[in-house]
Amino acid sequence: MIDPRDMAHCRESIRTGSLSFHAASRLLPGAVRDPALALYAFCRMSDDAVDEGADKGAAVLALRDRLDLVYRGTPADAPADRAFAAVVEGFDMPRALPEALLEGFAWDAVGRRYDDLSGVMDYSARVAAAVGAMMCVLMRVRDPDALARACDLGLAMQLTNIARDVGEDARAGRLYLPMDWLRAEGIDPDAFLARPKAYPGVARAVLRLLDVADGLYRRAEAGVPSLPLSCRPGIFAARLIYDAIGGCVRRARGDSVTARARTGRGVKIACLAAATGRAAVSTVRPVPAVLHAAAVPEVDFLVRAAAQREARKGRSDALLAVLAQLEARDRGVA
Fold it and tell me: Can you list the domains of the chain with their CATH numbers?
């Protein structure tokens, strides 16, 4: 059980740090909402430490150590850590899921770029689809088809985030659009980072990424009826709110460099109302065949881990390699 004081801290951190998720979480039942807020608070605090810290590598290594303590049952003396430890214990959270998130943060710390869409999807699987799989675990859902569709939603939301934040990321020296898409548009990635501007080619790449997200949102909807009825409005709300962000970027013709797209309170309220309606309709609609579509290859490892179809001992070789790279950099030997 999460300590009420720790839970209050998690609620406040999400209320001020993740407006879209905070809005959608209002429609979740309390038994899922509180652990979900604890999960998001831990993820948000970790993400901020990597994004905003002066030493990103050290922040990732510290997160590795914090996860070790969480899974030992002796979390660090911080509200988000204690709350997440209670979630891990109470829901039997597979360790591979938060460690996928850790790997994504490590990729950020080493400044990895992505040559093609598959690379962007690999990254999105770790920093977002892993959270979608963890949300299923909080709903006590372990069915592989439902997990695959939850991962689709995580991917779609992350692609929307990338499309929205191109300018903000570029000014911070980050670039998540596929490199081959930019080069096909005549955009040199290094030149763009040196001088971020609203180039038409960048806008076309942004709109192309939103098209991919749209297809994933549609696939994801097929999985919502597999969730407990009380959880469906909150998940539909998250889908609609993030899709509305993509709509703002589309109305700007793909220009997310000049200004960052935002959805106002009225849009969020409309999405919450629409989500409630969709949840009601989901009880009578036939199950779409796409529910049983194979998982996107980049998220298959998450589906298998969350479904507990296989036990993994220790960290993956890929995660160990990037952590070793960060440790070497931290020691000043690389």
Answer: 4-331 (1.10.600.10)
